[in-house]
Amino acid sequence: MPIPTVEKQLKVIKRGTVEIVPMDELVEKLKKSYQNQKPLRIKLGCDPTRPDLHLGHSVILRKMRQFQDLGHHTILIIGDFTAMIGDPSGANKTRPALSRQEVVENGKSYFEQASKILDPDKTEIVYNSEWLSPMSFEDVIRLASHYTVARMIERDDFTKRYQNNDTISLHEFLYPLAQGQDSVHLKSDIELGGIDQKFNLLVGRHLQKEFDQSPQVCLMTPLLIGTDGNQKMSKSYDNYIGIDETPEDMYGKTLSIPDNLIYPYFELVTDVDEEALRLLKEKATSDPRNTKHELAWTITNMYHGVEKADQARSHFEKTVVKKDVPDDIPEFAIVSGEHHRILDIMKSVNFVASNGEGRRLVTQGGVTLNGEKITDPQHEFALDSGKEVILKVGKRKFGRLIAK
């Protein structure tokens, strides 16, 4: 496909972008690319520290997809080497280093999930261990000589930890250098990242200059606030919406966001065009309830299709609004006559990932048996053979427990 005009590209590129460094160089790169009809090299690095992607990850992946649609060459770096160091961005202590086995396991499903957003046929996949692992100690020393300790300690994360007398390990200084080496190796024209990656992206730009390359432009997107409305979306904060969530969970979790996040979610994680966005900004204030349902349906449709999105809305209205029990809930057999602890049952049917999560849901009033709220995490119950009880965990998980 022909590369569009600079004006058309900038309209797409600027949407949902919080900072571009430097803007004038981006314009120049786009001009040359358009004049020569030669694609730019767009780089995005992802460390597979966790196996699951959520809508927070989708923000930057969607920006990369936009560059694909504009006709540029996109390179997705699976940071199998850098993940073993641990990115210090946003950390108030040294991150635990991952083993190669952990990184490999986490990375297996990464591209499969990312392909729900990216065009796999237009995505070059590389692993940075390919060029970082063969580097000798001499190579590392030479690389480190191109950056000063003073510049490194200017990094906000390091400054705070240094002032608080918190530990900073030397290997953490190597992370931004390793990420910068990715840019040198790949000769990237533009590197994408969240705003928390600004320091790392600028190191890459600096190193390219040091190695007589045309420095990359750094394009940064905002961090998506999670469903709690306070912190960035993260599995660690349990405020995430996974892109592999069931349609019902995706729909329901989206409805749980605060009203002030309706417009940012539309802007950052959907394909709604500029004209519709302007109207939605007004609707989000005047009619937040229905606008939030529109957002939930839009997101669910993006990942599951129209039919599943419609079903998810019907499921929500039936189970939450009308407080009915769905017709198609799963059935689970339990041993008759025995006492069963509620936490053990929730974990055995995979309604919670851990006893800690189950305990939190119980104490917060989010668990019922036949409509009766359970408030004691140590609660036990028993059923005679043939009897059944409806277990509800949270707002969307139902199960029919049948004693056998």
Summarize, please.
The protein is an alpha/beta fold and 404 residues long. Helix content is 46%, strand content 14%.
Textual characterization of the structure:
The model has no long low-confidence stretch (mean pLDDT 89). α3 (55-69) links the parallel β2 (41-46) and β3. This protein has three domains: 6-221, HUPs (Rossmann fold); 247-321, Tyrosyl-Transfer RNA Synthetase; 331-403, Roll (Structural Genomics Hypothetical 15.5 Kd Protein In mrcA-pckA Intergenic Region, Chain A), CATH 3.10.290. The chain has 18 helices and 13 strands. The protein is α/β, with parallel strands linked by helices and 404 residues long. 35% of the residues are buried.
* Class from secondary-structure proportions: alpha/beta
Question: How many DSSP E strands?
Answer: 13
**CATH architecture annotation of the largest domain:** 3-Layer(aba) Sandwich
The overall pLDDT, averaged over residues, is 89
Supply the number of helical segments. Answer: 18
| Unreliable segments of 5+ consecutive residues | none
- Largest sheet, order of strands side by side? 1-6-5-2-3-4
**Would you give the CATH topology of the largest domain?**
Rossmann fold
